[in-house]
Amino acid sequence: MDEPITRARDLAYVRMQAPDLSVGEKFLEDFGLIISDRTPDTLYARGTDSPHHVYILHKGEPDCRSIAFHMHSLADLEKLHREAQATPVEKLDEPGGGHVVRLTDPHGFTVEAIFGMEELEPIDAGKALPLNIDGQRNRVGRFADVKRGASTVKRIGHLVLESKRIEEAYLWYWKHFGILRTDKVLQPSGADGMQFARLDKGLEYTDHHTIGFQLCMDGIERLQHVSFEVQNFDDVMIGHDHLASDKSYKHVWGIGRHRLGGQIYDYWKDPWGRIHEHWTDSDLLNTEYEATIQNGDGARDYWGPNQQPTISYAIQKWNLTTLSNVASLIAGAVKEKLAKGKDV
Ligand SMILES: [Fe+2]
Question: Which residue ranges make up each domain of the chain?
Answer without folding.
Answer: 10-121+149-320
